[in-house]
Known about the structure:
About 40% of the residues lie in helices and about 15% in strands. It contains 13 helices and 14 strands. The strands form 4 sheets. It has a 7-stranded mixed sheet, sandwiched between helices. The protein has a 3-stranded antiparallel sheet with strand order 7-6-12, with no helix packed on it. α6 (about 115-120) runs parallel beside α7 (about 140-150). The longest helix is centred in the C-terminal third of the chain and has 19 residues, at about 245-265. Pyridoxal-5'-phosphate binds near residues 61, 86, 88, 157 and 195.
Amino acid sequence: MNVPFVDLRPQHRALGDELRAAFARILESASFILGSEVERFEEAFARYLGCRYVVSVSSGTAALHLALLGLGIGPGDEVVTTPHTFIATTEAITAVGARPVFADIDPVSYTLDPGRVEAAITRNTKAIVPVHLYGQPADMDPLLSTAKRHGIAVVEDACQAHGAEYRSRKVGTLGDAGCFSFFPSKNLGCCGEGGAVATNNAALAERVSMLRAHGSRRKYEHRFPGFNLRMEALQGAVLSAKLKHLDSWNELRRAIATRYKLRLAEAGVVLPTEMPYARHVYHLYVVQSPERDALRGHLAAWGIETGLHYPVPVHLQEAYRHLGYREEDFPVTESVTRHIVSLPMFSEMTHEAVDYVASAIEDFHRLRPIRAVRPHPTAVGQ
Length: 382
Ligand SMILES: *Cc1c(COP(=O)(O)O)cnc(C)c1O
């Protein structure tokens, strides 16, 4: 059996007629950028999330960039975030000229540890960017109260968490702004690049919507220099068609996670934990193994594709060497980085495929004595 890490084709086969009709409609209209297809999606997504405004942009990276810019964050400012994320989170911070300041993660949720965020705040801190990583919400209540106490903004990176809930509220609507990516393999993906900023703040929505389109609301009237970070009509139409299925696709992901959990309970790997406050949407199903690289090799030999999210934490990336972070600065993140492996996960994955992956992992541990993962060394030099 071959198990791909992700396969988007079944989703597009199921929606093929609807997507082809949308493409034909857009070709005929010859209106390819923003316009009514995009506005229809923005309204539907705002309704789905339960927030007042959704402003579509050209990617998740653009959403983070323009949300920070729209909130007035810039040179001299610090933004506290997690080193355990995709680099786009911090690229948005550096793109506006601010400085990323990292705080370590909680070893169970893999999201920002609120106590460490509090400790990282200085006079220059202007925002916190929690990442709802793998589809698991960050612990928002303590982060929001820290932000409130210091009078700073919260910009949620919800690029992996469409439909995830924190205490029954959709993530992306809890802070000042929520940023989504519609990269094809995300829980809600388009057929190209796409992203959006969700907010309840009318002034921010207005600023982001102008920033994405050359600082203008009307053609050739530019209030400030902006960018070209607009969404294409085709992506708006694809997203409107797919949004109707997001909840059922997330339910399928949750059912796959439940089956993995049953099958892997005794298999010698650390499983994801859905936090008590969370409705996890399993963008990724990430386990930890003391012998991660050997396990990956074993799974590859069984025809199973796996991923690493992410192999090098952001604070140790060459791109951010100038920030001056070193190894052992964030021991929880660094330990997690060494042990994680992402197993195949997509809504159309069959339960037979899940069972096959579980059998391969059991087989790996039959061949080797199980060593425990020590996920969070507490002292340097231990
Ligand atoms: C995908 C992703 C982004 C960036 O989204 P793009 O649409 O690829 O620009 C940002 N943050 C996280 C956590 C992501 O997973």
